[in-house]
Amino acid sequence: MSTKRGKKYQEAAELIDPELEYTLEEACDLVKKTSKVNFDASVDLDLRLGVDPRHADQMVRGSVTLPHGTGKEISVLALVNEAKQEEAEEAGADHVGLDEYIEKIEEGWTDVDVIIATPDVMGQIGKLGRILGPRGLMPNPKSGTVTNDVAEAVEEAKSGKIDFRVDKYGILHASIGRVSFDAREIRENALEFLRTVMRLRPASAKGLYIRSAFMSSTMGPSIPLSRSSVISA
């Protein structure tokens, strides 16, 4: 890391009191001030959950449509048969097809943010799981990306719907906006995400569900959030 970059990070870190935990409202103001990069950084929310993802009944995964979107242009691939291709194109999908895209993905192409498929083609694309799974791109009925309503799925993805899944360490990571958003928009996106996560609490999860939470911008320092402001979302 260069000296200049390190100095910027230190300047940002000095704005955060390591002895404090911040309310969600305070963090949404602070995350804008601590972004020192010269591009429109992502605002990220990380939650450490009291779940053991090794058990299927404690796997937390889902999707949420953020009220103010993600601030990012979402690239959507629709893997559908010919009968559904016009519907996908009219809804705004960036890439539409089937066999040719299966072949491209097998060759290593994954330059999209969301992949939507219809149930009838899942048998053909199941073999792509080893490539798409680790990248979070494998279509899944639980996240609404395996559906016959292709138009609705494409429109939701383009308008700011995000998918999330707890990792093997029990950490849930989501990008909920950009530092160019005003603090109110960041907060409203964060609240919608947190409410969705709370609704997905597994019945088998015991004790504290959200154990800790942090907000940060790309390459910026983490801002610890108070649990009370997170769980009361």
What can you tell me about this protein's structure?
- One of its GO terms (cellular component) is large ribosomal subunit.
- Keywords: Repressor, Ribonucleoprotein, Ribosomal protein, RNA-binding, rRNA-binding, Translation regulation, tRNA-binding.
- This is Large ribosomal subunit protein uL1.
- Binds directly to 23S rRNA. The L1 stalk is quite mobile in the ribosome, and is involved in E site tRNA release. Protein L1 is also a translational repressor protein, it controls the translation of the L11 operon by binding to its mRNA.
- Part of the 50S ribosomal subunit.
- This protein has 233 residues and is of the alpha/beta class.
- The protein folds into two domains: 20-70 and 161-232, Ribulose 1,5 Bisphosphate Carboxylase/Oxygenase (2-Layer Sandwich), CATH 3.30.190; 76-158, Ribosomal protein L1/L10, domain II (Rossmann fold).
- Helices cover 34% and strands 20% of the residues.
- The protein contains nine helices and nine strands.
- It has helices at residues 3-13, 24-33, 82-91, 99-106, 122-125, 129-132, 150-159, 183-199, 227-231, and strands at residues 42-49, 61-65, 76-79, 95-97, 114-117, 161-165, 171-178, 210-217, 223-224.
- The strands form three sheets. It has a four-stranded antiparallel beta sheet with strand order 7-1-8-9. A three-stranded parallel beta sheet has the order 4-3-5, with helices on both faces. Strands 2-6 form a two-stranded antiparallel ribbon.
- The protein is globular and about 55 Å long.
- The two termini are 37 Å apart.
- 35% of the residues are buried.
- The mean pLDDT is 91.
